């Protein structure tokens, strides 16, 4: 992957965030919700609630839960988190409500579970990947996980597993065909989460989990300072000479998580739009390098569920 950084207009940003949320809503409405699978997130809680209140649509429960979670995010995480999650949190139930009004949900049998898991997970991952690539947030359990991470000794990964596993287990216990069938449904839900996670990773920046970013720039100090402030990432600085122009430049090399790429992208655009950037897979890393889980909290989305 070799590219120059281009600027993204606000119109493009919100269009792409809306597209991502729309695709996620398609995955849930046409595959996950009809199957009764509870894959975590606020929508998973909404699906559980409709088992006890079948006259209330999933979209209404989803909207109410997202508003409550956004409010918690405002008080526990601050205004910035509230604003960042507003688009996804409000648009998602709106798209679900639109589908409920104009399109009858498909009917599936137990024999179709594999197809539902693959297609549902694929669409959710595609939509989530688009949202993440453009620096958005889908709200939902994303906020709950951040709150748990902030106010408990649990790491980010432990917070993620604790919140999502609790919701998936609740889905198994409340499954209408009995607990044994609920366990099977939970296993399919895990498959959905796995597929959506893999697809989202590929959309964000590719199939690899980590990338080496090479930045050839005239403004290394500004870029270094901004990246360290935002991500706490170190990097290697190499003096270089342009082969054609023979002008002096600097090469900055750093290894990042996929989910951090859009932050680095914005930093480069803000400090040196003319910088030449190329990104390569970092398939094997030795020496001092940390996943920097705390970066997730400062991220300007890795739950795969809505």
Describe the fold and architecture.
Helix 1 (10-35) packs across helix 4 (79-102) and helix 7 (156-173) runs antiparallel to helix 8. The chain has helices at 10-35, 41-52, 58-77, 79-102, 113-133, 141-151, 156-173, 179-204, 220-231, 261-271, 294-298; strands at 2-4, 210-217, 236-241, 248-257, 276-281. A hairpin with a 6-residue loop joins strand 3 and strand 4. Mean pLDDT is 81; it is low at 293-304. The protein folds into 2 domains: 2-204, no CATH class; 210-282, 2-Layer Sandwich (Alpha-Beta Plaits), CATH 3.30.70. The protein is elongated. The chain is α+β, with helices and mostly antiparallel strands. Strands 1-5-2-4-3 form a 5-stranded antiparallel sheet, with no helix packed on it. Helices cover 61% and strands 11% of the residues.
